[in-house]
Amino acid sequence: MARVRLGALTAVVCVVALAGCRCRAPTPEQEAQRYLTDARFRRAAMEASLVNPKNIYSRQRLDAYGLETRGWDLLPEWNPRSIQVGAAQRAQLERGASPELDDATAPLWDGATPTSREGWLALGQQVFFRYPLRSEPLAAFALSQPELAEQVGLERSSDGTYPGLVLFRDVDGVTRVGLTCALCHSAHEHGALVVGAARRHFDYGKLRLAHRDQSSATIEPGLAARLARWGPGRADVTEDDDEDPVAIPDLWGLASQEALTQAGTIAQASPVALALRQETQLLQSNHERVRPPRVLAWALAQYVLSLTPPPGPAHPPSPRGEALFDRGCRSCHSNAAFGGKPVDASAVGTDLALAKGRARGTGLYRPPALLRVRQAAPYLHHGAVSTLEELFSPARLEPGYLGSPLGPGPVPGHRWGTDWSADDRAALIAYLDTL
Ligand code: HEC
Ligand code: HEC
Question: What is the pTM (predicted TM-score) of this model?
Answer without folding.
Answer: 0.93
